[in-house]
Amino acid sequence: xxxxxAMFPLLAVICLFGATSCKNRTGISDNVTEIIAPxxxxxxxxxPGEYLDWQSASMLNIVRQILLEYPPRVIEPQERQVAMVMxxxxxxxEGAPHRRSVQIFHHQQTSxxxxxxxxxxxxxxxxxxxxxxxxxxIRTKSVTVAFDITRGYSSNSEAxxxxxxxxxxxxxxxxxxxxxxxxxxxxxxxxxxxxxDKSKPVVAPPDVWEGKEIYDRITHLxxxxxxxxxxxxxxxxxxxxxxxxxxHQGTNLLNNVVLVFTPDGYNVCHTGDQSNEDDFSWIDExxxxxxxxxxxxxxxxxxxxxxxxGYAPLFIIPAHENxxxxxxxxxxxxxxxxxxxxxxxxxxIMTWGExxxxxxx
Length: 361
Prior knowledge:
With 361 residues, this protein is an alpha/beta fold. The protein has helices at 10-18, 48-69, 78-91, 100-119, 164-172, 189-197, 280-283, 286-289, 304-311, 334-340; strands at 126-130, 136-139, 144-147, 176-178, 202-203, 229-233, 238-249, 253-261, 267-270, 294-296, 315-316, 346-347, 355-358.
């Protein structure tokens, strides 16, 4: 049965080590323009804001060139790790979402995802794109699934947030949207409405937008551990198998942990902000019931080793790093992923706008 755990062939592991992003790129267009750094004066005495603007733009230009040369992969060169730490330095500036260079970086990286979506069929394997915060899009030959994609207004910067026109084009490329929970860095009502207006399902916990007009159009699947349910995709004329695990953020906030089984035989689990230790009662047993090829956990989840062991994924892509609406002590860093997720499973560290081609055969 395709939902059951099976021995993963050695060939697949070998292929994963060599797998790279779409077209051997990071999702950055080959002709992407530089982020223009302000002209540097002889010094920045008494101009700390101007200095940080210049520094941010200069660092992001360097980072993008490194990411272009060293796309996501299981075994990372040191150069790529340096680039991720440089991103942390830029994003841990308290005013980062209000820096023009960071806004441009966000918009251009997302534009690159859109360009790839418009030009990538994923005839073999599965493409995975990472967007801001916990936004993820996966595509196989038969289906394109979005998780927690938002415009980015949680950053508290209107200029950082993506324009509605870009999000409308992104939703054109997806077949349905899963929303893990009600926080605005995961749930964006405007984006959800775009899906619904195109007769594409939006699946969320029962408390998301309760009392609003949109509520009755949201799909509320049962939150039941290990039980496979189906959701009909009208635009694809197919049923998609999913498990909606009854997760929580903290003690009481409902948080759907969704395991999606694509018709092509690839399985992806997105955890949202799962962080309730009582839920290990079912997390510990996931791998006994289902195969998880790709696990996308919130990077700060309690007990990463126990979490990874429960799902036993082929590889892990942590998410939720550098949510710019948070104070800098809770803008979880890419650098921390290397120690937090030092677990006996393959992991891939990605930033906004990057893609990875999972093709195990």
